[in-house]
Amino acid sequence: MTARRILIAGNWKMNGLSADGVALASGLADKMKSAGAVNFEMLVCPPTTLISKVADAISGSGIQLGGQDCHMNEKGAHTGDTSAVMLKDIGCAYALVGHSERRTDHGETDAVVAAKAAAAQGQGLVAVVCIGETEAQRDAGKTLDVNGSQIAGSVPDGSTAANTVIAYEPVWAIGTGRTPTSAEVQDVHAFIRGELVKKIGADEAAKTRILYGGSMNPKNAKELLALADVDGGLIGGASLKVDDFWAVAQSI
Ligand code: PGA
Predict the structure, then answer these.
(1) Distance between the two ends of the chain, CA-based, in angstroms?
(2) What is the overall mean pLDDT for the chain?
(3) Which structural domain range is residue 19 located in?
């Protein structure tokens, strides 16, 4: 059994102005500093406007910083976009790619997501590749097919456990307060690891962290994080309050 370090990742989405972001980040940094050695890695992904301020607020705390998206190109005529090297330049070590809200709101396909993940990896960032089925796909019995084809299409060839994290987020569980059962989560995670074996080989697949996301909160985190193939969480709503996000991390 390969030891995988649990990753507790906060996806702030399009939330927070300067004061909120700094207060949240400082609150988490204080918790981390007073906790000393911890058995997990913590990541926060603020809106792009707050990344620099959050970088200052978490400095020296060990908390990692990530963007919520990156462009597939390094620079150029792409109004409104942010590239991986820009994220790196302001202190990010991670970039989320292919979140279901990006896929829905911006029509991102697996090929686009793979190109973004490759761009992030190319700058030395860890790409957090998000996948997950919709409710209709689940009802139609297509959960494994959908997640399998998203792994095949969204994870770049040559990815490694060091530069890639997978986040399994059933679309119907995001922000709804609903989650699959623990047995269902474990089944999908084990299946995803099997698909990763095909994509990046058994050694890397065994070391790759697979996060669960979708209504993870202080109440359900302990059970979800105890599952054999769940290596952390990607947390939206519950990452916006210091005490809730910290409680999720403490439930490992
Ligand atoms: P949620 O969001 O925790 O609010 O369900 C998770 C996510 O979309 O990453």
Answers:
(1) 18
(2) 98
(3) 6-250
Contact 4, 193 (CB under 8 A): no
Which two structure tokens, joined as six digits, stand for 121? 């990896």
Q: Which CATH number belongs to the domain containing residue 126 in this structure?
A: 3.20.20.70
pLDDT tens digits, one per residue of 42-87: 999 999 999 999 999 999 999 999 999 999 999 999 999 999 999 9
135 token code pair: 């409710």
The closest residue, in CA terms, to atom 7 on ligand 1 is 236
Residue 1, domain member (yes or no) = no
Total structural domains within the chain: 1
The pLDDT confidence band at residue 2, using thresholds 50, 70 and 90, is: low
Ligand 1 touching residue 177 (CB < 6 A): no
Task: Say whether pTM exceeds 0.90.
Answer: yes
Q: What is the pLDDT of residues 164-187, one digit of tens each?
A: 999 999 999 999 999 999 999 999
Interval 112-133 mean pLDDT: 98
- CB 53 within 8 Å of CB 21: yes
Q: Which residues contact 172 (CB under 8 A, 6 or more apart)?
A: 133, 134, 135, 138, 178, 214
- DSSP states along 27-40: HHHHHHHHH-S-SE
Decide if 237 is inside a domain.
Answer: yes
Q: How far is the CA of 225 from the centre of ligand 1 (A)?
A: 15
pLDDT at 1 > cutoff 70: no
Does residue 51 have its Cβ closer than 6 Å to ligand 1? no
- DSSP characters over 103-129: HHHS---HHHHHHHHHHHHHTTPEEEE
Catalytic residues: 99, 169
> Residue 236 Cα, ligand 1 centroid: separation in angstroms?
4
